[in-house]
């Protein structure tokens, strides 16, 4: 549930970046550099500090492995329980990812390339499950079928909770495809079906890979979903160890193995990206691809799929939630905890989103205005830290603050730092798009009128990038609103958020009392879902 | 025009966020005493309510699991923000006590608690007690009959027939009692058999619910989960029965919930007052009248009349100050349960 929606952003980002390229490229690179001079020192310094912070959790895992000593590592890592967890985690990923890809691509094709009745509505319904936190999906299913558990349940619930991460970027990619390439393939003798697999599928590879990476990271990081349906992964096992021994060596070693899994996933995604290039050259613009006409039985089948998926992914959690809300009556809304939890959640979200967006600004500015190898490394650092599960980040921060930074231990500062490390790339992606759309000339003019570099930035680019910043802040806000693991471990004494309250209630099997918290979390996420949906439409220019 | 709206928007957001940040930081001051609470939240909240009403002292809770909070206090050492530590079971009290982090409990508090339910050294006191039970679904239990001892559940005929929540402190306390009564080798063997035999759930409530729903025949939990559910709707316990092992069996283990004041507490007077209130007549009365259904341990304090009297449980003699949580977790890790 941490890292809910780590952002289709990355998928969307690929598209926005490509679109913004022509707008930038009319400025000759050399001229651009000359116009800018060197990047202001404070921006570079801030970027380096933030990127170094991002490496903190990973550095901690490495450090603790060295200090633990080989003998203990062998004892704690090379045991059958770890093998069992590894097997569980790997099978989960190997089964869930292909199913998610299949489902996402099928739905995207139906809503984008066929004459399916009510395509816009189905498209929205395929995006909407993102608004439901993963652990609420689990809560719905476990209430519906109490005996649900183990691998099949884990696959079922994770596919339903996470397929939109693939649907969204793939649907956006479908909208951008140039039908001329398919025409060429068919003119060279391929049947429409063969042309689809030969020409269309490879063009979706980036979107599928990016989406699959996102789903994979969620599968590795998720706690609540799997804890509720009794399926053990590394994250749930780390949590168990944490409950039994706080941040002892056993928990830290499991975190190390989990971090390795995440890095493996990252490099697998890079390896599958490929180098093939599909671009349109020459003048004019691509025409709108023709819609495939579905008829008779095919149309019926085509309607059943999105209807069924919406019923399972949206209908089940919403229906169960309503059922518990009705069963709980007015009493559950009178819980003394509800209002404080909402207040504290909103506070953490607002402050967290603001800080994260501000911290992303220097890196975003540098990556657009002064790109280079250094900035690429910095972006990489943030990317890696955001791929680490919340439990790993939190465990690192608990141990570091308790040993070396007592003054910020158990304060809101540490929680916000964790949010910053986990969610910075979301803010970064939106901000970058915003800054890329602000013409650099305005900065130059402001400078020529006597403003200092900092003043010039504030007066021009930062103002123009404000919508991008707002979008990034919104993404971070929503991500924080349903974050569970890091909040549980790091929050100051007496803090209760919607997610932690929901978790406390549902752990006691008081499902009715947990329902209001789930409902509020969903309501908070709806605007983001709408934003993602409309953004992916806008990117496609439709 | 667009510029202006954006900047007004940005300024508003900034102003709101700064106010928020201000309140977040301000709220950290003036929190009265901090209690690291591993007891059931509803029970501790009832205690806090009574205490604050009477004394005006504010209490902030940090909720967690016994061993999580115990180990956290250990790591925090003298810098721990905690003033009071309340647990569900004794092993974590022993852990903190062995690290020398408890201040002696005020004599007036000690004298309120039945000597059978507090360690003689007086570094912490019992605040409540709970009994291990074997919960089963009579319509599902295969006719091999009920087990005579908790140790029987390691036998092959119990494979796949009982449920347990090993990540929780409750079951870990039961294991620590087995460790104390039967020794290390026998305990490890039992745990390994349990890894093969038992179905793992997360939380005793989940075990009770599964047994009630007939997903599994039986489980090992504490008594009050069932009584608590009966007092509410009974929807998770109406198909279940309880078996008390008695006969000084490890499965008849009565676990003592503990409370102690940290030596590092900066509000020692208020912290001692809180512990005194919990063990006093009105504090123990909360156990008799509330929905916690844990046993009262105060001198002359009565437990809920619905419970089997504590004295009738024929529990094994286990010195609560000997229970070793660290070794228990190590053994459970070794057996692949954690």
TrEMBL record, chain B:
<dbReference type="InterPro" id="IPR006061">
    <property type="entry name" value="SBP_1_CS"/>
</dbReference>
<keyword id="KW-0732">Signal</keyword>
<keyword id="KW-0408">Iron</keyword>
<feature type="binding site">
    <location>
        <position position="225"/>
    </location>
    <ligand>
        <name>Fe cation</name>
    </ligand>
</feature>
<comment type="similarity">
    <text>Belongs to the bacterial solute-binding protein 1 family.</text>
</comment>
<feature type="binding site">
    <location>
        <position position="224"/>
    </location>
    <ligand>
        <name>Fe cation</name>
    </ligand>
</feature>
<keyword id="KW-0406">Ion transport</keyword>
<feature type="signal peptide">
    <location>
        <begin position="1"/>
        <end position="26"/>
    </location>
</feature>
<dbReference type="InterPro" id="IPR026045">
    <property type="entry name" value="Ferric-bd"/>
</dbReference>
<dbReference type="Pfam" id="PF13343">
    <property type="entry name" value="SBP_bac_6"/>
</dbReference>
<dbReference type="GO" id="GO:0046872">
    <property type="term" value="F:metal ion binding"/>
</dbReference>
<protein>
    <submittedName>
        <fullName>Iron ABC transporter substrate-binding protein</fullName>
    </submittedName>
</protein>
<dbReference type="GO" id="GO:0055085">
    <property type="term" value="P:transmembrane transport"/>
</dbReference>
<dbReference type="GO" id="GO:0030288">
    <property type="term" value="C:outer membrane-bounded periplasmic space"/>
</dbReference>
<feature type="binding site">
    <location>
        <position position="88"/>
    </location>
    <ligand>
        <name>Fe cation</name>
    </ligand>
</feature>
<dbReference type="GO" id="GO:0006826">
    <property type="term" value="P:iron ion transport"/>
</dbReference>
<keyword id="KW-0813">Transport</keyword>
<keyword id="KW-0479">Metal-binding</keyword>
<keyword id="KW-0410">Iron transport</keyword>
<feature type="binding site">
    <location>
        <position position="40"/>
    </location>
    <ligand>
        <name>Fe cation</name>
    </ligand>
</feature>
